[in-house]
Amino acid sequence: MDRDEENYYGKHGEPRKFDPKFRGPVHNRRCTDIICCVIFIVVILCYIALGVVAWVHGDPRKVIYPTDSYGQFCGQRDTFNENKTILFYFNILKCASPVVLINLQCPTTQLCVSKCPDRFATYTDVQASYRYRPDQWNYFRQFCKPGFNNPRKSVAQVLRDEDCPSMIVPSRPFLKRCFPDFSTKNGVLTVANQTTFKDGRGKTRNVTDLREAANGINIVLDARSVGMKIFEDYAISWYWILIGLFIAMLLSLLFLVLLRFTAGVLFWIFIFGVIGIIGYGIWHCYWEYDHLKGIPGSDLTVYDIGFQTDFKVYLQLRQTWLAFMIILCGVEVIIILMLIFLRNRIRIAIALLKEGSRAIGYIMSTLFYPIVTFLLIAICISYWAVTAVFLATSGEPVYKVMANQTLCKYANLTCDLETFNTTNVTKLCPGAQCTFAFYGGESLYHKYIFIFQLANAFVFLWLVNFAIALGQCTLAGAFASYYWAYRKPADIPLWPLFSSFGRAIRYHTGSLAFGALIIAIVQLIRVILEYLDHKLKGTQNSFTRFLLGCLKCCFWLLEKFLKFVNRNAYIMIAIYGKNFCTSAKEAFYLLMRNVVRVAVLDKVTDFLLFLGKILVAGGVGVLAFFFFTQRIPIFAQEVPMLNYYWVPLLTVIIGSYLVAHGFFSVYAMCVDTLFLCFCEDLERNDGSTAKPYFMSASLHRILGKKKLSPKKA
Question: What catalytic activity does the UniProt entry give for this protein (predicted)?
Answer without folding.
Answer: choline(out) + n H(+)(in) = choline(in) + n H(+)(out)
